[in-house]
Structures are given as structure tokens and as C-alpha cells.
Amino acid sequence: MISSLVILVLSLILFAYWFRYSCLLILRTAPAKDYAGQVAEANQLNFREVQRQLQTEEAGRRLDDLYELLQRDYKFLSYLLSGPSRFPFRSLDIEQKTLAVDYALVQVWYWIGRRFSLRQSRLALEEMSSILNHFAQTVGERVELLSRS
């Protein structure tokens, strides 16, 4: 019984480590051409501005406002990626689904960290904006492919 519990706990820890590593690897992959800036500008998205503001000292007083801007961008980019559907994430590939789950987990981390650590909240918002940057990059790549067809 104890050995089964130890194996289960170790398996969960290894899965969490693998998941986290996979998400960070996806986010650190540099694209050949940057479409995210064009998508952000064309759709008046704020994730790049949030990234800039998080580097300033004033960001600590505005974290909840920055969070709301990221939420707005997330809803819009999710809609662009998956389209109008009863099952909004069905058309996403595994990479986008993984990042969508990571985004939800980082949101929870933001709200937990918000009460205890300003630094952890900032890190959570930075990762959320990186995920949105990746989503915008994917939207831009898809638009580019459609325009070639």
C-alpha cells in the first residue's frame, strides 16, 4: 500500500515537472518571423504593453489592471484560434491546448501569489503574457498560410 502511494506521488511530481518543462520549452522557441506584434497591433491587444509595464516599478500597484488586460486578450485570441464553437478548444492542436492549461494554472498561481508575494504575481503575469504572445504568433502564422492559399 505504501509503495503504491509513493509511486503515485513520484509519478505526479514527474508529470508536473514534465508539463512545466514542456510549457517553458514551447514558450522559449523563437519563431523565424515575428507575427505576434502585427497581430497585437492590428487587434489592439495589450499583452506586449503589459510585458513592458511589468518591467517598471509602477507595475506593482497595477497588477490587477494588467491582469484584466491579459484576460481580455486571452478571450480574444482564444476565439481567433478556435473560432465560434460550442467546444471552444476542440480545434486547437496539442501545443495550444497545453499552453491553455498552463495559462489556467498560472492564473491560479497569480491569485495565490497576489496575496503573499508581489514578485510571484509579476512572474505569473509575465508568463501569461508570454503565452498570449505565442497564441498571437500562431494566429499570425495561420493568417500568413491562408493568404498564400
From the structure above, extract its key features.
149 residues; mainly alpha; globular
The strand count comes to 0
Fraction of residues in helices? over 70%
Distance between the termini: 59 Å
Q: Give the biggest sheet.
A: none
Averaging pLDDT over every residue, what do you get?
90
Unreliable stretches, pLDDT < 50, 5 or more residues? none
Supply the number of helical segments: 6
The total number of structural domains is: 1
Radius of gyration: 17 Å
Strand content: under 5%
Order of helices and strands: HHHHHH
Shape descriptor reads globular
Structural class estimated from helices and strands? mainly alpha
Describe the structure.
The radius of gyration is 17 Å and the shape is globular. The chain has helices at residues 2-28, 36-42, 47-53, 63-82, 94-116, 118-148. The protein has one domain (32-148). Helix 1 packs across helix 5, helix 2 (36-42) packs across helix 6 (118-148) and helix 3 (47-53) packs antiparallel against helix 6 (118-148). The chain has 149 residues and is mainly alpha-helical. The termini are far apart. The chain is built from 6 helices and no strands.
